[in-house]
Every structure is written in structure tokens, then in C-alpha cells.
Write a structure and sequence with these properties.
By secondary structure, this protein is of the alpha/beta class. It is 36% helix and 14% strand. It has a five-stranded mixed beta sheet with strand order 2-8-7-6-5. A four-stranded antiparallel beta sheet has the order 9-10-13-12, with helices on one face. Bound molecules: pyridoxal-5'-phosphate (PLP).
């Protein structure tokens, strides 16, 4: 068709499969197996449908921002909130990666980065992880148009220490460095304190994993007020009312219940550490993971075969038929019961 020559053509990101059958054991999209904080359900019951006639504004907007600012010990001017961190990251790509030089990110990483780069026509260069799937920080010290990486990295779970993150930020003062901390609450140390010293650092986090609210779509970025200002200018040039009333009210409740949050993260960490032992015993190897998932490959069986057999048993994990990682499975940490069911089936497959 004639009009097709004027279409912006993109290859979209493919998320993990969302099976229609809710009874399967779903360990393929790194969702949290536990419900959100009890205050979330209570707040949901209090929502006033009459309010939904209005555009979301004060006081809801301020409640979520204030709860986050208080929790992280930052000011409202250092905080940006968006519709999941995918929204925040997409806006950040659009805002900060305007150089002619390529942006840098790891060759094995969140597979949305090259999608956004292609969408916005941003040149990029992938930097190979080493044999142990570690980011080599020296690779990021050449001239570039910006840097982005998750810490811990996805889908490997490998955590970079704070010193190394700082080296990358310090070596790139003339561009913006985005650290995607989607999984930082499962045992990593956030680089957030560095935003006071480095005005080129943007730290992005999400409610989707550690706060059990993937369905609500809440993400946020923290950085120097000037960075946040530029991000807001772009956001308000696309859609000035992205967060909805319900998400704003519920999100604030999820942040306020600090004890529940820590308890939930601790449970997942404990289950993960047990999973390392179990999977190790079944012949799997994996890099040390600091996420709510393990990136494992088997000594004998192909990942694709295990993936197929698990699926036949109604257990969904994530598999990519991609260079360098096509013999690995990313297994999300579920509840202890879900994990026991996984080990039972794996014993049959691998035994
Ligand atoms: C899950 C994930 C995100 C996006 O999460 P949202 O649900 O959009 O907040 C961003 N980065 C990484 C590395 C992720 O794994």
C-alpha cells in the first residue's frame, strides 16, 4: 500500500507469554508471587468512582510523590513518576539520548533497550559481557552518547558493585547515565546516594517487581532536579496526565508499608537462595543472582528442551532463542510451593 512508505516501522519488544489459564505456575515474567501490602486492598475499597470524572491531580499526585520522596530521603524535585518504568525509560531515551554518538549498553540485557533506540533512531553499540556475564566497566569509558544498564543486570541477575557503577558515572560526566534498578530490592545496593554528587545520573525503579504491583503500572526515576525537569518537559509534551487516579492512591499505600515490603523481599531472597541449592543439585549452573530470578543452564539437557517439558507440565519459565543465551532459562522465584512443584518436575526431566 502506498501509505506504508510513510509508516514508522518498528520491531516491538516481546514480553513473556501471558497464558489464558490462570492455574499454570507462572515463573516467566518476574512478577512477585505475593500480594501487595494490605493497605493497597483497603485503599482500593475506598476509591471514589465519582472522583474518576476528574483528571487526576492534587492531592493524589502529591500523595504518591511525597510517600516516595520521604522513603528515599529525596526532594520532590529529584523525583519523576511514570506509568511503569518502561514508560519512564522510554521517555528518558527520548529526552537524554540525542547525541550523534552511539549510546552504550550490554549485549545481554533488558531486550527493550534496542527497541527504544530503534524507535527513536538513536545509534547504539552493544558492549559484550565477559564470560561470567559481568559488565566490563572499562568498555563504557570511550566517547559515547549516553549509557544505560540494569543493576542487577537482566536476565543474568549479576550485580555490579557500587564502586564500579560510580566509575562508569564518573567517566561519563558529559552524557547521561541511566541505571535501571528494577531488581535492586532483592539484595543489591542502590546507587541512589550518588545522585547528590553526579548530576548526570538517573536512577530508575519500579513497583512491578518488589512492590507486587505490576498490574498498576508505576515506575519512577530519581536524579538531579535539572534532569527531572527535562524529563517532565518531554512527558508533558506527550501526555500531561499519564498516571491514573487509582494508581496514584494505591501506590502511596504500597510505599508507606515499609515492614511488609521488607518482609516480602526477604522471603523472595530466602526462596532464591534455596533455589540455588536445589537447581545446583539438579545439574544446573548459573551466575550468582541478586534478582527475583535465576538464569540457569543445564550440564546435559538443552534449555529449549527443558523449557518445552516444563510448559507441558504447566510451568512457564522464560527462554530466548538468541545468540549467547540460547542455552539458558530465566526462572522467576515464586512461592515456596511453586518452587517445590518446579523441583518435582525438574527431577523427572533431569533425573
Ligand atoms: C521489568 C523490568 C522493567 C519494567 O518494568 P515496568 O513494569 O515497566 O515498571 C524495566 N527494566 C527491567 C530491567 C525490567 O526487568
Amino acid at each position: 500500500m502506498e501509505w506504508e512508505k510513510n509508516v514508522r516501522k518498528v520491531v516491538p519488544y516481546t514480553p513473556g507469554e501471558q497464558p489464558a489459564d490462570r492455574n499454570v505456575i507462572k515463573l516467566n515474567t518476574n512478577e512477585n508471587p505475593y500480594p501487595p501490602a494490605p493497605g493497597v486492598a483497603a485503599e482500593l475499597a475506598l476509591l471514589d468512582a465519582g472522583q474518576m470524572r476528574l483528571y487526576p491531580a492534587f492531592p493524589e499526585q502529591t500523595q504518591l510523590a511525597e510517600a516516595l520522596a520521604e522513603y528515599y530521603g529525596i526532594t520532590r524535585e529529584q523525583l519523576f513518576i511514570g506509568v511503569g518504568s518502561d514508560d519512564v525509560l522510554a521517555l528518558a531515551f527520548m529526552t537524554f539520548f540525542q547525541s550523534e554518538r552511539p549510546i552504550f549498553f550490554p549485549d545481554i540485557t533488558y531486550s527493550f533497550y534496542d527497541v527504544w533506540a530503534d524507535l527513536y533512531r538513536i545509534p547504539y553499540e552493544k558492549k559484550a559481557l565477559d564470560e561470567q556475564f559481568r559488565i566490563r566497566s572499562e568498555d563504557y569509558e570511550q566517547p559515547n552518547g549516553g549509557v544505560i544498564f540494569p543493576n542487577p543486570n537482566a536476565p543474568t541477575g549479576v550485580l555490579m558493585n557500587l564502586e564500579q557503577v560510580k566509575d562508569i558515572v564518573a567517566a561519563n560526566r558529559d552524557v547521561v547515565v541511566i541505571v535501571d534498578e528494577a531488581y535492586i530490592d532483592f539484595g543489591g545496593v542502590s546507587c541512589l546516594p550518588l545522585i547528590r554528587k553526579y548530576d548526570n545520573l538517573l536512577v530508575v525503579q519500579t513497583f512491578s517487581k518488589s512492590r507486587s504491583l505490576a498490574g498498576m503500572r508505576i515506575g519512577y526515576a530519581m536524579g538531579h532536579p535539572k534532569l527531572i525537569g527535562y524529563l517532565n518537559d518531554v512527558k508533558y509534551s506527550v501526555n500531561s496526565y499519564t498516571m491514573n487516579y487509582a494508581a496514584l492512591r494505591i501506590g502511596a499505600e504500597a510505599v508507606r508499608d515499609v515492614d511488609y515490603f521488607h518482609e516480602c523481599c526477604d522471603r523472595i531472597i530466602q526462596t532464591r537462595e534455596r533455589a540455588k541449592k536445589e537447581l545446583g543439585g539438579l545439574g544446573f549452573t548459573f551466575p550468582e543472582s541478586y534478582g527475583n530470578f535465576i538464569f540457569a543452564s543445564h550440564e546435559r539437557l538443552s534449555a529449549e528442551e527443558i523449557f518445552r517439558q516444563l510448559k507441558a507440565n504447566d510451568i512457564y519459565v522464560r527462554y530466548w532463542k538468541k545468540e549467547r543465551i540460547n542455552n539458558h532459562l530465566r526462572i522467576t522465584i515464586g512461592t515456596d510451593e511453586q518452587m517445590e512443584a518446579l523441583y518435582r518436575v525438574l527431577r523427572q526431566i533431569c533425573g
